[in-house]
Amino acid sequence: MNGNDIMKAMTGINEEYLTGSEITVTKNSKHSKGVFKLAVGIAAAAVFVIPVGAYAYNTFIHKDSVEHYIENAEVLESRDLAANMTAADNDGEIRFTVETVLNDGKQIYAVVTAEKISDSAEKYSKRYTTGGLNYFVTAVYADNGEFITNNTSTNQYFDGTEKQTEDRRALIIDLDGVDTSRGIKLLFHKMRGNNLYGEGKPTGQRDNNSVPILSDCDIEIPAEKNIACTELKNADGESVFLSEYELYSRPAVWGNTIEYKADLIKSNGERIPLENVRENCYMETYSYLIFDRIIDTDIKGVEINGVEYLR
Question: What is the predicted pLDDT for the residue at 50?
Fold first, then answer.
């Protein structure tokens, strides 16, 4: 058993089962691999349970899923941003893993993997792609289940590396008006015909169209801000916000279409085209670019369609 195995096994053990435990972690920033030193005394004859949904160790369960959307995923591992929160649906057909949860205070960006764990899950397979499962995700407050949004999915893309037994996708939750101090829970819904919220467990909540929400399982995700976000302003005082994974504006700043031209402005004035974009979204009230990697935000500002936004 290596260090990662031990960390996975020890995640969430109740302190009453431990005597004199010590865990120290050092990281090699170049290779993003953890080196663990454990000195753990376990009480004699103690029986412990490893809980599902733990948020502790720093190696992704499905790193390929994360790299599908964030190419330099090892950066997140080196900063302990691997969530590895797992839950199976009530029928034991699909297991969902929240791989990582990034929060810059503007939008939550998460990567989720779904896996078939039963042959009966075949009925949820997408028929016209090389991989994927038919399910969707809503978000509610963790304290009382109050509905937040049913629009958490980004555009999935397929590059030929998909597995028939897996589904990997990125999720976005816009945080405008959301009280993150109440906690956030993701509800997973397997798609069954035309029944939007499946046949899962009633949550007691309704969406914005008064449709009752049922879920097959849920995972409460970390809701605290964990990624720095910088406000940049133009000459008229209008703002955009730049973090390591997105450029966000509210209201939208690049017109009434999704067309844009954006450059990063370095401290010496050099302009670097912002090309590493995974998703470009324009809404009437806000817009954003999601990057395909964690980027260096040590810059002077950005230029969008000829307009500079500076620190």
Answer: 37
Its domain, for residue 27, covers 3-42
CB 151 within 8 A of CB 107: no
Q: Is residue 57 part of a domain?
A: no
Do 262 and 301 share a domain, yes or no?
yes
- The half-sphere exposure of 234 on its side-chain side, counting CA atoms within 13 A, is 13
Position 119 in a domain: yes
Assigned token pair, 237: 């005082």
Q: Hey, is 73 helix, strand or coil?
A: coil
Unique residue bearing structure tokens 């844009």: 260
Residue identified by tokens 């900063």 is 79
d(CA 75, CA 294) in angstroms, rounded, equals: 8
152 and 250 together in one domain: no
Q: Read out DSSP for 125-140?
A: B-SSSSS-B-EEEEEE
Mean pLDDT for the stretch of residues 58-76: 95
If asked whether residues 154 and 262 sit together in one domain, one would say: no
Tokens standing for residue 230: 């910088």
Contact predicate 164/130, CB 8 Å? yes
Q: Are residues 102 and 234 in the same domain?
A: no
The number of distinct structural domains making up the chain is 3
* 248 Cα distance to chain centroid: 17
Q: Is the peptide bond before 202 cis (omega within 30 degrees of 0)?
A: no
Question: Which tens digit of pLDDT belongs to each residue from 241-290?
Answer: 999 999 999 998 876 666 788 999 999 999 999 999 999 888 888 999 99
* Residues 102, 196 share a domain: yes
The model scores a pTM over 0.70 = yes
Query: Which one-letter amino acid corresponds to residue 228?
Result: A
End-of-domain residue from the set 221, 253, 277:
221
